Amino acid sequence: MTGRVVAVKVEADGDLHIALSDATGDKKGTVVCEVPLKPQWCDIRETVFSWTPTRFPFQTSSAKTLKIANPPVVTIVGKAYWDLRHAPKDQSNRRNHQPGYAAWEIHPVMKIDVQ
User: Fold this and answer.
1) What is the pLDDT at residue 83?
2) Rg (CA), the chain
3) Rounded average pLDDT over 82-101
4) SS3 sequence, 50-81?
5) Which of 11, 26, 50, 58 would bridge 15 by S-S if both were Cys, CB 3.0 to 4.6 A apart?
6) SS3 20
7) What region, left, alpha or beta, does residue 25 occupy, with left being phi > 0 and alpha being psi -120 to 50 degrees?
8) pLDDT given at position 69
């Protein structure tokens, strides 16, 4: 999936959520791409943190949205994941509490290419 990074959030468990929207801004909708907190994802996590002024060591006990100085256009490769916890009862492709966000995610992110 190729899109513009519109938000990066660190969850309380340390996972990173990258929100992607259409790269040109012509199409509506946002997809969450999740990078787990595990050693095999360190290179991807370093890339994501390089877009922000946040530096290591970094600790949080609650979710925190990071500032992005210059939101990049990226291509993300990973597994498509239907996040049932966020889908409404009618199973439409919109999240319960984030109407502009898809219930589908890319989870886990396996590769990121910055355009």
Assistant:
1) 62
2) 14
3) 59
4) CCCCCCCCCCCCCCEEECCCCCCEEEEEEEEE
5) 11
6) strand
7) left
8) 86
Beta strands in the chain (DSSP E): 2-10, 16-21, 30-35, 64-66, 73-82, 101-114
Contact 68, 52 (CB under 8 A): yes
Tokens, residue 74: 């990226």
pLDDT per position as a tens digit, 63-72: 999 999 899 9
Query: Residues 104, 78: contact at Cβ < 8 Å?
Result: no
Query: Of 85, 71, 75, 86, which Cα lies nearest the Cα of 110?
Result: 75
In sequence order, which residues have a C-beta less than 8 Å from that of residue 82 and are 6 or more positions away?
103, 104, 105
Contact 53, 76 (CB under 8 A): no
Contacts of residue 36, defined as CB under 8 A and 6 or more positions apart, other chains included, come to: 15, 108
- Across the chain, what does the average pLDDT equal? 85
pLDDT grade, residue 27 (50/70/90)? Answer: confident
Of 35, 25, 15, 27, which is closest to residue 79 (Cα–Cα)? Answer: 35
Q: Token pair of 92, please?
A: 């439409």
